[in-house]
Each structure stands twice: as structure tokens, then as C-alpha cells.
Amino acid sequence: MRYFRWAFAVTVLGLALGALLGWQQAGTIEGAATIFFICTVLAVLEISLSFDNAIVNANKLKTMSPVWQRRFLTWGILIAVFGMRIIFPLLIVVVAAQISPVEALVLAASEPEQYAAIMHDAHLSIAAFGGTFLMMVGLGFFFDGEKDIHWVQWLERTMSSYAGVRGIEVAVVLLIVLGFTTLHDDVAARTFLKASIWGLLTFLLVEVLGGVLDRRAVMAAGAQGGLGAFLYLEVLDASFSFDGVIGAFALSQNLFVIAIGLGIGAMYVRSMTIMLVEQGTLAQYRFLEHGAFYAIIVLSVVMYAQSFVHIPEVITGLGGAALIGVSLWSSVRWNRKNGCAGEGA
């Protein structure tokens, strides 16, 4: 537990700020409890979605010098929390609402009602863009021919067997997008389709970036002890964080709630990374990652549905948390049944 002392401290502070924010907005205990709950779910979701991130970071950090390990675990976490979890969501609001960053920040802090109205008007584009990106992330995990650990056996084995069909994830997502597009009128349909295409292109560009980084592994290896490896890990962290940032909008459109929840989760990812490096072990729960990616797919469908019907945030949060919880429980059962500590998913 000593690895998570700072994460626990940030959790207490963050959840207290979340409850205070809810109280200021609603003026009721129920309002404070709602924001408290959303921040908690966002933190849990960020931890689960970033599980791979902790493993990749741990593997790379083992090869770095102690000095650059400390720099990544201090400066790197500041970049991760303030860059990807605060500035990036703000940029999403700026692009979606077509206002300046200063205006977006001022509105979020001083005029939440007007801010909410602007976000409501821009919600169709955010839902389509985020839903498409998340759907590609989720399906990409299951349409994998090299995936040999399956949680829901019949479904995941079938999807894995079709992984060799080129572009199958893109085809499935486009069919789903076209289906939801028909539910909108002409103007909304064009907006939904355009934003969905941008979400698809963004995912593909992130994949290309990952491929380029993989092909330049020699460069990273040559700078394992210095700035090169540090920057390498920061870019990878941004790639891993993107789905969590987008998915957060399915739970809340409040910039500060998103920042609090994802910031708490990022601190746990940092703590897990340190623990994995110092203990020399990797993931112990083989199905936890599966639950996280099922939660991603659920979030993507919710975001599509929210483009024309309101779905309470509490229901969305409970669905994702339940999937992650069940996958953790299944992992513990598997470990006990097989008499081992578990292995990575």
C-alpha cells in the first residue's frame, strides 16, 4: 500500500473538491453526492483504461537510468495530469463550441449555465466524434488474431477469428454510424456523420503514430537513459489517455469534474507503474483489461444514443463500473481455481 500513499492523498483531496463543486452547483447534498460519484467513476474508468499504459511505462522505465525514471514519474505525471486531463478536454470544448480557450475557461468557472447551454448545442458533434473513436478502440482489442485470452469465450473467439479480414473494425463502425445517422433529421444527420468520420480519422492517425513509434524503436533504445525515452513515453501516454478523455464526456460535460476524475486516475496509474518497476511483476488480473474494453464499447453506444435521447450519467457510470467489477471478480476466481497469482491479459 505504500506505493499508493500519494494517490490516496490526491483521491481524498479530489473527491472533496468534487463534492464541494456539486454543492456549489446544486446547493443540495444530493448534488454533492452526484458529482462525488461521477468523479469516482471517472477515476476508476481512467485506472482501468490506462492499465496497459502502466505496463508499457514499467517495461520502458526498467531500461532507463534512475535519474530519468524519477523525472518521468514527477515531470511526466504533471504533463499527463495537466496536459491530457485538463488542457486537452478544454481544447475539445473550444473546437466543439467554436470559442477561445479563455472564453471556455471563464464560462466553465463563472457562468456554468451558459457554458452548459453551449455544450448542449455542441453535444451532437462530441457524441458522434467520441462514440466513433471509442468504438474503434473497443473493437480493435477484440478483433485481434493474436489475442489468446478470452473472457466471454464464444464472442471473443469469434471476433478474434475474423481479425484477419482487413478493415473489419472500420466496416462495423461505419455500419453502426450509418444506422444511427438515419435516426436524425437531415441537418443533424450531416453533423453526426461528419463528426463520426473525424472520430474515425483521428483513431486511424493515432494508430499510424503508434506504428511510426514502433518502427523507430532503435531511436528510443538509443536514448533509453535520457530525453529521447522520456519524450517517447509521453507520446505513448497521450495515445493511451485519448480514449479516457473522450469517454469522460459520456459521464460529464463539466471540465472541472473531468479534470478531477481523470487526474485521480492518473495518480493511481503512476503508483501502479512504480510498483510494477520496483516489484518486477506485471498484471495479476487476466480479465480486467477485457472488462475495461467492454466498458469502452458500452460508452461508445451510450454516446451515440445521447445524440438524440438523454441518458442519466449515473446509469452510464454504473454500467462501466459494473463491467470492470465483474471482470475483476472473474480474474480473482480464475486465479483461485488455477492456484496462481494470475497473469496479464
TrEMBL record:
Q: Which keywords does the record carry? A: Membrane, Transmembrane, Transmembrane helix
Q: Where are the transmembrane segments?
A: 32-51, 72-97, 122-143, 163-183, 195-213, 225-249, 255-275, 287-305, 311-329
Q: Does the keyword Membrane apply?
A: yes
What organism is this sequence from?
Primorskyibacter flagellatus
Which Pfam family name is an example for this entry?
A: DUF475
State the NCBIfam families in the record.
PRK14013.2-2, PRK14013.2-6
Ranges in coiled-coil conformation = none
Protein name according to UniProt:
DUF475 domain-containing protein
Report the domain of life of the source organism.
Bacteria
